[in-house]
Write a structure and sequence with these properties.
Blueprint: E1 3-7, H1 13-22, E2 26-30, H2 33-37, E3 41-44, H3 49-58, H4 62-70, E4 75-78, H5 80-84, E5 86-90, E6 102-107, E7 117-122, E8 132-137, E9 141-145, E10 150-154, E11 164-169, E12 172-175, H6 186-198
Parallel strand pairs: 1-2, 1-3, 3-4, 4-12, 5-6
Antiparallel strand pairs: 6-9, 7-8, 10-11, 11-12
The structure holds glutamine.
The site of glutamine has 11 residues, from helix 5.
Pathway: Cofactor biosynthesis; pyridoxal 5'-phosphate biosynthesis
Protein name: Pyridoxal 5'-phosphate synthase subunit PdxT
Catalytic activity: L-glutamine + H2O = L-glutamate + NH4(+); aldehydo-D-ribose 5-phosphate + D-glyceraldehyde 3-phosphate + L-glutamine = pyridoxal 5'-phosphate + L-glutamate + phosphate + 3 H2O + H(+)
């Protein structure tokens, strides 16, 4: 089974470890460069992207993670993790910085106060078995994608209809929502398969 790390600086780390294990991976937490060296893929959890950005520098993980991404390591970012994988962030803090990740512009806290948190069915390209039950918590959306970025899912109901919430660029995957909170292993299984294929 592939070894998948969960960046364990801040956010809902344990839920991803559980979901990855259920999806057939060996899941490890990652806080140090040596722990990063030992994984085949990495999950960046939801939490607070400004905090994760700061801690990435304090824990001296920015260079090592950018290097692994350049070498083709699969990375999945959920919510704040999606923001950390975006090459451009709108409504971010001026000092927050992401990785050299997916060629996309994301807007932080995009869904607004009225619909701060909500749930919606989202069909994901490449994941059979019907729509995922997507949970959004102060979530970003993807406002623009660059060349080579595949849109995997959009919201199809309600005021946010049409908004992009799942994307992939080669081995990098990102969702606005939190599949680790629903008990549905399909998104994590998709990422485990991607990591297995990349090994
Ligand atoms: N609003 C958070 C941020 O900007 C993301 C929220 C989440 O990860 N649930 O990082």
């Amino acid at each position: 089974a592939p070894v998948i790390g969960v960046l364990a600086l801040q956010g809902d780390v344990r839920e991803h470890v559980t979901a990855l294990t259920a999806a057939g991976a060996r899941a490890h937490t990652v806080r140090r460069p040596a722990e990063l060296d030992a994984v085949d893929g990495l999950v960046i959890p939801g939490g607070e992207s400004t905090t994760i950005s700061k801690l990435v520098d304090i824990f001296e993980l920015r260079g090592p993670i950018d290097k692994r991404i350049a070498d083709g390591m699969p990375v999945y970012g959920s919510c704040a993790g999606m923001i950390m994988l975006a090459t451009e962030v709108l409504d971010g803090r001026p000092d927050q910085r992401g990785f050299d990740g997916i060629a996309m512009t994301v807007r932080r806290n995009a869904f607004g106060r009225q619909i701060d948190s909500f749930e919606a069915p989202v069909e994901i390209t490449g994941i059979p078995g019907g729509p995922l039950h997507a949970v959004f918590i102060r979530a970003p959306w993807v406002e623009r994608v660059g060349e080579g970025v595949e849109v995997l899912g959009t919201v199809t109901t309600g005021p946010a209809s049409g908004r992009i919430v799942a994307v992939r660029q080669h081995n990098l995957l990102a969702t606005s929502f939190h599949p680790e909170l629903t008990g549905d292993p399909r998104l994590h299984a998709y990422f485990v398969d991607l990591t297995r294929a990349a090994r």
